[in-house]
Amino acid sequence: MSLVYRFGLISQTIQEAVWGIPRIPQISITLPKKLQELKEKLFQEDISIDNGSILRAVPKKKLSHRRHRVKQYAAGRKQIQQLENLVRCPACGSVKRSHFMCMNCFDEIKTFLKGLKRANGLIKDTVIRPMENFANPRDETIIYPGKFTKPEERQLKAKEYIPKREEPIMFQKGKMLHNKKRDRLEKAGIYK
């Protein structure tokens, strides 16, 4: 007999002794609370994160204005439905949509196949040469003749690349006055 069943029988006999009333025998076996919690967690359909929030699918790109309006204001059937068919991948344990391939597993397969192709010689790795530092810039133009520097680039490479500001023209009151007013002032002898 199991330990839980024995404790159930002992509790019945204690109740009969205290109250003096015989009880109907219990058929169900009482499980500890911890086992019941584990049983509930097994049959939970939602995937939860640490703080108990439900994990849902997240869009990878920003919604367009039109799509956002449809989702917000359209009738019930026309609204975009939330994806709730999220499950854990049986191979790696990451979250994925049901009936879709897990992207983590896909990446592993992809890297594995690329490794095989490299081993067979189907993919050749490009060799990156280190940058050469030339003492004379003319050597660089001879070795790399296709590269032409624009005047803006040359100006930026120069030490004084900040443009010099032109001196302002001296202020003349006559330039600011309207033609009719200037003529009147000239006749009066005030403006020269």
TrEMBL record:
Record's GO cellular component terms: mitochondrial large ribosomal subunit
GO MF assignments: structural constituent of ribosome
Keyword tags: Mitochondrion, Ribonucleoprotein, Ribosomal protein, Transit peptide
Subcellular location: Mitochondrion
Top-level division of the source organism's lineage: Eukaryota
Principal location listed in the UniProt entry: mitochondrion
InterPro entries assigned: Mitoribosomal_protein_bL32, Ribosomal_bL32, Ribosomal_zn-bd
SUPFAM superfamilies linked: Zn-binding ribosomal proteins
One GO-annotated biological process of the protein: translation
Family that this chain belongs to: Belongs to the bacterial ribosomal protein bL32 family.
Protein name as annotated: Large ribosomal subunit protein bL32m
Species this protein is from: Candida verbasci
Organism phylogeny: Eukaryota, Fungi, Dikarya, Ascomycota, Saccharomycotina
